[in-house]
TrEMBL record:
<keyword id="KW-0813">Transport</keyword>
<dbReference type="GO" id="GO:0051537">
    <property type="term" value="F:2 iron, 2 sulfur cluster binding"/>
</dbReference>
<dbReference type="InterPro" id="IPR041854">
    <property type="entry name" value="BFD-like_2Fe2S-bd_dom_sf"/>
</dbReference>
<comment type="similarity">
    <text>Belongs to the Bfd family.</text>
</comment>
<protein>
    <recommendedName>
        <fullName>Bacterioferritin-associated ferredoxin</fullName>
    </recommendedName>
</protein>
<keyword id="KW-0411">Iron-sulfur</keyword>
<keyword id="KW-0408">Iron</keyword>
<dbReference type="InterPro" id="IPR052371">
    <property type="entry name" value="BFD-associated_ferredoxin"/>
</dbReference>
<dbReference type="InterPro" id="IPR007419">
    <property type="entry name" value="BFD-like_2Fe2S-bd_dom"/>
</dbReference>
<dbReference type="Pfam" id="PF04324">
    <property type="entry name" value="Fer2_BFD"/>
</dbReference>
<keyword id="KW-0001">2Fe-2S</keyword>
<feature type="domain" description="BFD-like [2Fe-2S]-binding">
    <location>
        <begin position="2"/>
        <end position="50"/>
    </location>
</feature>
<keyword id="KW-0249">Electron transport</keyword>
<keyword id="KW-0479">Metal-binding</keyword>
<dbReference type="GO" id="GO:0046872">
    <property type="term" value="F:metal ion binding"/>
</dbReference>
């Protein structure tokens, strides 16, 4: 999804920047060598940044081999 049409910034760009350590909107733009121009995208970038950071943090917390499979959860319930 395109988040910023001025810079052709997509949600994938935001996710990639977060994976590379971005924690602020300006770091998202800097990862693409651009900056907010008209400003209409800033709220969307902030929202996607929060979502991507949360997703990234959750992945870092629980190793994939530790996440229960649906069948395992049903058996233990």
């Amino acid at each position: 999804m395109v988040v910023c049409s001025c810079n052709r910034l997509t949600h994938k760009d935001v996710e990639a920047a977060v994976a590379d350590g971005a924690t602020r909107p300006r770091e998202i733009y800097a990862a693409r060598n651009c900056k907010a121009q008209c400003g209409n995208c800033v709220k969307g970038v902030v929202c996607l940044l929060r979502e991507a950071r949360l997703k990234h943090m959750k992945k870092a917390e629980v190793p994939a081999h530790m996440v229960p499979v649906a069948a395992d959860v049903a058996l233990s319930a």
